[in-house]
Amino acid sequence: MNGFWAMFRKELTQMLRDRATLFFALFVPVAELILFGVIDMNAKNIPTIVFDQSRTQESRTLIRQFISTSLLSVVGEAHSRAELQHAIVKGDAQVAIEIPPDYARNLAAHRQADVLVAIDGSDSSVASQALNAANGVVLNEDIKRLLGAVREPMAMVEAHPMMLFNPDMRSANLLIPGLIAILLTFSGTILSAFAIVKERERGTLEQLTMTPVAPLGLMLGKMIPYGALTFGELCAILLVMRTIFLVPVHGNVILLLILSLPFLLTVLGIGLVISTRARTQAEAFQLSMGTILPSVFLSGYIFLIENMPPFFQAISHLIPATYYIQILRGIILRGAGISELWVSATVLTGMGCGATLLAARLFVRQSAS
Description:
Blueprint: H1 4-17, H2 19-38, E1 46-52, H3 57-67, E2 72-77, H4 81-90, E3 95-99, H5 103-108, E4 113-120, H6 124-148, E5 157-164, H7 171-193, H8 195-202, H9 205-210, H10 215-243, H11 253-277, H12 281-297, H13 310-316, H14 320-332, H15 338-368
Parallel strand pairs: 1-2, 1-3, 4-5
Antiparallel strand pairs: 3-4
Helix pairs in contact: 2-12, 7-10, 7-11, 7-12, 7-14, 10-11, 10-15, 11-14, 11-15, 14-15
């Protein structure tokens, strides 16, 4: 045990000086505990759009019963079946309720009244709970009519659930599109986070700053090779997804590859920002993990964003993977086009340009100091 106390004091001093290690050792577990504790795993306030062709007191009563379950939240009213389908494909709504024009007449004539409930099957937890909510509302309505019927024949309400985009509820179809965003976030951020740190550790950073290369040109020159590598990884993942896991792509693959470029620009730019601030590769890796963990938990891949507290919802809108998952699920599962996804693509483009310019600016400040 000779030298134990000396080694103990040395290691303790180094640990206390390493703020990054202390941050990840203390803050990250507490943050994950709070996140898992405050987020409700049960779906609620599922965005719902209604196409009420009956427009009667009976149809409005049925809609109020759907809303009273607290699982569904009406976010809009459609005026045609095409508008109803567009809202589902775009992702504005995950449940669509269509009430036919003869709904009230069938109830008055003691005939069966049908209601169509279309559910977005790209999220398994939301789909199953929305299906249970729809069946529960119809069952409750039938029980009320059964108890109120004495001698007259009873009119029954029949719901016809229709699971869209993933009727078999295959887990691979649900998990892999979102997993692509997580994998690219991890690889793209890590690769570019080491770009400038390696120059510093090799002792060539001063030579790099003395070369007649503009900071933005330097950042793009560092970024493009890693971007090409990450893009090749994306193509390989899509090939494995389609051939081995048999996940169908309902949209345009070329559009998917084009809209992936702003996301790759964003994650590579974030990695370069980290690389300009980190002193060692170990520190760069720790800082990269600090950006990857929120992408896993707050992007909507695991938890429904609508179920998060307002603070975490605000953070989720700052995470690039949130918008890229919307693009992936939209094209792969729902067959969405650019008209439904242009907002997410625009946000990612702005994030990517901003991250790249920020990295160049930080590199200039670092060189000046």
